[in-house]
Amino acid sequence: MNLLKNYNLSKLTTIRIGGKAKFFAQPADFNELRELILFSREKDIPIYVLGGGSNTIFGDIGGLVISLRKLTGMKVERKGEVFLIESLAGTPLREIVSLSVKENLDGLYRLVGFPATLGGAIAMNAGAFGVEISSFVRRVIFVDWNGEIKEKNSEEIEFSYRSSPFPREGLVLSCLLELPRSDTPVEGEFKRIREKRKRTQPIDKPTSGSTFKNPYPLYAGELLERVGMKSYRIGDVSFSEKHSNFLINHGEGRYGDVLKLVNEAKRRVYEEFGVRLEEEVRFIEDSGVDGWKVL
């Protein structure tokens, strides 16, 4: 078990902002991950598990940060007009999306452009353009906080908008996805969505993705633009001029500036519309099994 100390977390997040973790580890297999969980329990060290780092911004972490990026791989089985994809949690979602387009499978291609791992996508129930990944989940294997490996079928998992029982109940190890073949070619729609993302979202910049959840039936980006947050900047961090719900690091962004921006955005939207925006990005200053210090 290789533990690194005082590890700089900024290079692990897509926005390239972050403090340091007291401990950091990158397990190579399930056994190493289980050892880390048991070690943290024995030493009373809080844990945070990181996937692709696309919806997380760190302050300083007094506990253990675990990256699952080495836990990759997938197996594919075709059953008639349905494909079963069993994938490890650290597998980049883009690889599964690419496979679905190649095999002309329906639905999942709409998640093109998500820089998440499969485990992270399941934990936040990633969704876009009318689909959520929970629609394709058939089984999740996870390790609970006692180090026991467990399994749940889709009907046992309480998914909701941008939410799941994970990591509250444990850490996703692998997932079985079921994807049907499409009756019509999906590549054209896949390319259209990809180009729309490039045109309307700052995916070529260091960003953490959508900052706030959409307060149904409204859109967070529209509310933020209407209160003047588009391109609004503090220090080296701003809301994007392309999409007001995306934060951008212009080079030397600091965690404290991010918090100031988010607080200002929430204040303006509440004062103008009476709407309390809820964060989609996780702002983490300390970590643990039962939750984190979130702004």
Helix/strand order: EEHEEEEEHHEEEEEHEHEEEHE
> Any idea of the CATH class of the largest domain?
Alpha Beta
Distance between the termini: 32 Å
| Proportion of helical residues | 10-25%
Sheet bearing the most strands, described? 5 strands, antiparallel
**How many individual helices?**
6
CATH names the topology of the largest domain as Uridine Diphospho-n-acetylenolpyruvylglucosamine Reductase, domain 3
**What share of the residues does DSSP label as strand, in percent?**
25-35%
Estimated structural class:
alpha+beta
* Mean of pLDDT: 93
Tertiary shape: globular
Name the strands of the widest sheet in spatial order: 6-7-12-10-11
Catalytic activity: UDP-N-acetyl-alpha-D-muramate + NADP(+) = UDP-N-acetyl-3-O-(1-carboxyvinyl)-alpha-D-glucosamine + NADPH + H(+)
Organism: Hydrogenivirga caldilitoris
Function: Cell wall formation.
Main location: cytoplasm
Provide an overview of this structure.
- This protein is of the alpha+beta class.
- It folds into three domains: 4-67, 2-Layer Sandwich (Uridine Diphospho-n-acetylenolpyruvylglucosamine Reductase, domain 2), CATH 3.30.43.10; 74-180, Uridine Diphospho-n-acetylenolpyruvylglucosamine Reductase, domain 3 (2-Layer Sandwich), CATH 3.30.465; 212-278, UDP-N-acetylenolpyruvoylglucosamine reductase, C-terminal domain (Uridine Diphospho-n-acetylenolpyruvylglucosamine Reductase, domain 1, Alpha-Beta Complex).
- Helices cover 24% and strands 27% of the residues.
- It has six helices and 17 strands.
- It has helices at 30-43, 93-102, 118-123, 187-200, 220-226, 255-273; strands spanning 4-8, 20-25, 47-50, 56-58, 61-67, 74-79, 82-88, 127-128, 131-132, 137-143, 149-153, 171-180, 207-210, 233-234, 237-239, 246-249, 282-284.
- The strands form five sheets. A five-stranded antiparallel β-sheet has the order 6-7-12-10-11.
- Strand 6 and strand 7 (82-88) form a beta hairpin.
- Mean pLDDT is 93; it is low at 287-295.
- Residues 16-182 form the FAD-binding PCMH-type domain.
